[in-house]
Write a structure and sequence with these properties.
Blueprint lengths: L11 E7 L8 E6 L2 E7 L5 E5 L23 E2 L2 E3 L6 E3 L4 E3 L8 H4 L7 E2 L1 E4 L2 E6 L27 E7 L3 H5 L6 H6 L7 E8 L2 E12 L2 E12 L3 E7 L4 E11 L2 E10 L10 H23 L15 H9 L8
Antiparallel strand pairs: 1-11, 2-3, 3-4, 4-9, 5-6, 6-7, 7-8, 10-11, 12-18, 13-14, 14-15, 15-16, 16-17, 17-18
The structure holds FE2/S2 (inorganic) cluster and fe (ii) ion (FE2).
Fe (ii) ion (FE2) binds next to helix 3 and helix 4.
């Protein structure tokens, strides 16, 4: 554990890629949860995740060679093929082929799991992986976001932005319950008013009324945010240009996080909104991420901050968040 950030990684569902990044029979290396992984899509179209290292002699399954150099390794049928000696593994972690052996190792002959599979869900055009430090099976599910459905013709294409952030995810999440920082970090005209905040099991919902800078001047918008576990967040902006932001966070390791932001904007007369207010909302959130990142990269986590009235409900937020830890680290 680092001195700056004492928290371990939380468990939950975490985005590791967008669906469009992984074609059929494609694979790619991943590094999340302090672990090397491989993500692949079977010829049947299913996304699967395994530990990265081949149990034969330790090659990384996510790096192809020869005609696949620079890309992922090969996928045949439901299995990923190790580039080193051609052994193949399905998404359940069983070895499905040892192409040159007459007598494969007994575990393989018995059909046992020889490499660790990770639970995967694909929804909202996103690939999620379940991480739990003790290897416990999923205790809840990621949430379906209707606006993000592939066949939702009322909403436009994803506008995607990603950031590598040098802090623990909980610190990033605390932004949602910190109205005062908007004025000082983001230069809003006033401190936005939180008018609702609910904690209900793995769900957390909140509403902020905020002023946003747009080319048409400052406008008042309602920002409704919703978290399903620590990894999946959805923010709905209304009042000006209807925008849904999937703001998913994934632990790279204990002190580094990846932010996957996909903005989806409601079509007007069948057309995606371009320019003006629509672009301004996206630009404003991206600007906020750059500003927050400077604070996050250098701040230290205080278990007992010195709070005042009009600070947000940090204690409630932290209590809610603590359900996603298995160890008592405080
Ligand atoms: S290391 Fe993977 S097949 Fe040999
Ligand atoms: Fe912020």
């Amino acid at each position: 554990m680092s001195e700056r950030i004492p928290m371990p990684m939380p468990f939950g569902w975490f985005q590791v890629a967008y669906s469009h990044e992984l074609a059929v029979a494609d694979s790619m290396p991943l590094r999340y949860f302090g672990t090397d992984l491989v993500l692949f899509r079977t010829e049947g179209g299913e996304a699967r995740v395994l530990d990265a290292f081949c149990p034969h002699m330790g090659a990384h399954l996510g790096y192809g060679i020869r005609d696949q150099a620079g890309g992922g390794s090969a996928v045949v049928g439901d299995s990923i093929v190790c580039p080193f000696h051609g052994w193949a593994y399905n998404g359940d972690g069983q070895c499905t082929d040892v192409p040159y052996a007459n007598n494969p190792p007994p575990k393989i002959a018995r059909g046992e799991q020889v490499i660790r599979p990770w639970p995967v869900r694909e929804l909202n055009q996103v690939i999620f992986v379940w991480y739990h430090p003790d290897g416990i099976e999923p205790t809840f599910e990621p949430e379906l976001i209707e606006e993000a459905a592939t066949d939702n013709n009322d909403w436009g294409a994803f506008k995607i932005h990603t950031w590598d952030i040098d802090t623990h995810m909980q610190e990033i999440g605390e932004n949602a319950v910190d109205p005062a920082h908007f004025l000082y970090v983001h230069g809003t005209q006033n401190i936005p008013k939180p008018d609702e905040m609910e904690f209900d099991g793995v769900l957390r919902t909140g509403r902020l009324v905020s002023k946003m800078a747009t080319p048409r001047g400052e406008i008042t918008g309602v920002i409704a945010n919703r978290s399903t576990g620590p990894g999946q967040a959805t923010v709905r902006f209304s009042g000006i240009c209807e925008t849904v932001l999937m703001a998913n966070l994934t632990p790279v390791d204990q002190e580094h996080s990846k932010a996957f932001y996909a903005f989806i904007q409601k079509k007007v007369d069948g057309e995606e909104p371009v320019g003006g207010v629509a672009d301004a909302i996206v630009a404003d959130i991206c600007k906020q991420m750059e500003e927050d990142s400077i604070i996050w990269a250098h701040k230290k986590y205080f278990a007992k901050p010195m709070l005042c009235d009009n600070d947000g409900p940090f204690a409630k937020f932290r209590k809610w968040y603590s359900q996603f830890y298995t160890q008592d680290w405080a």
